[in-house]
Amino acid sequence: MRTAFFLGGLVVVAATLQAAVIPGLLPPVLRPDVCVLLAIAALAFAPRELGLMAVFTMGLVADLFSSGRFGLLTLSYMLAAGIILWTAWRELTHGDVLGAWIGGLAGTILAHTIYIFAARRCGIDLPVGQGFATILSLVIAGTVWGLPLAYFCGKTMYTLGVVSPEVREKWAKQARIAAARRGKTLRA
Predict the structure, then answer these.
(1) SS3 of residue 26 by DSSP
(2) 2-163: in CATH 1.10.1760
(3) End-to-end alpha-carbon separation of the chain, Å?
(4) 101/170 Cα distance (integer angstroms)
(5) For residues 65, 69, 73 and 74, what is the CA-based torsion angle, rounded to 10 degrees?
(6) pLDDT of residue 187
């Protein structure tokens, strides 16, 4: 039930930010691909199965909003997540927000590069130069918005109890240490 609630909330947040809030408030160079940033953050903090379900779900949401062919962004997201897990699984799944942020940037680059080449193979007339300019603007926007999105995604997952046991243990230990430090400073 918590998993379904988390995935449903992730869809609502991503759809709201991607379709309504961000295009209305930000210039084009600061409009990130919220779906891939949230998907890689979920992949970093959740157990692997839930993380891959989040990547697939966010790929479907992205396909509904902006794909030339339905399923192509989902395929790109899944391949990018697979490449990230294959190359940097240990670094990504430590429960660090910085790792999720860097993974989100790498996921943005990989997913959209795969999308450009797959779209061209499927017959979609997509200029490569324009595609890479779009990737550059998505990376700039992901640099700005990726860290807050990863932080809030991780804290929401921790609150809902859907983080992996290793991440839960690490964050609980950090909370105990912070509470002990506050207790020492209050007594002194």
Answers:
(1) coil
(2) yes
(3) 45
(4) 18
(5) 100
(6) 53
Taking the C-alpha atoms of residue 40 and residue 54, their distance in angstroms, rounded to an integer, is: 8
The structure tokens listed for 61 are 């949401």
**CB contact at 8 A, 46 and 157:** yes
In the chain, helix, strand, coil percent, each to 5?
Answer: 85, 0, 15
Name the burial class of residue 72, with classes exposed (0-12), middle (13-18) and buried (19+) by CB atoms within 10 angstroms of its CB.
Answer: buried
Contact 35, 55 (CB under 8 A): no
Residue type, 66: S
Question: Distance (Å, rounded) from C-alpha 128 to C-alpha 27?
Answer: 22
d(CA 10, CA 35): 9
Coil, helix or strand at residue 96: coil
Instruction: At 145, list the tokens.
Output: 């918005």
Per-residue model confidence as pLDDT tens digits over 40-80: 999 999 998 999 999 999 999 999 887 678 899 999 999 99
Residue 157 corresponds to which tokens in the numbers above? Answer: 């997952």
| pTM, full prediction | 0.89
Rounded to whole angstroms, the maximal C-alpha distance in the chain is 70
Contact 157, 50 (CB under 8 A): no
Q: Give the SS3 label for residue 8.
A: helix
Alpha-carbon distance values, 63 to 9, 55, 66, 68, 153 (Å)? 18, 12, 6, 8, 21
Q: Where is 171: in which H helix or E strand?
A: helix 165-187
Give the model's pLDDT for residue 188: 47
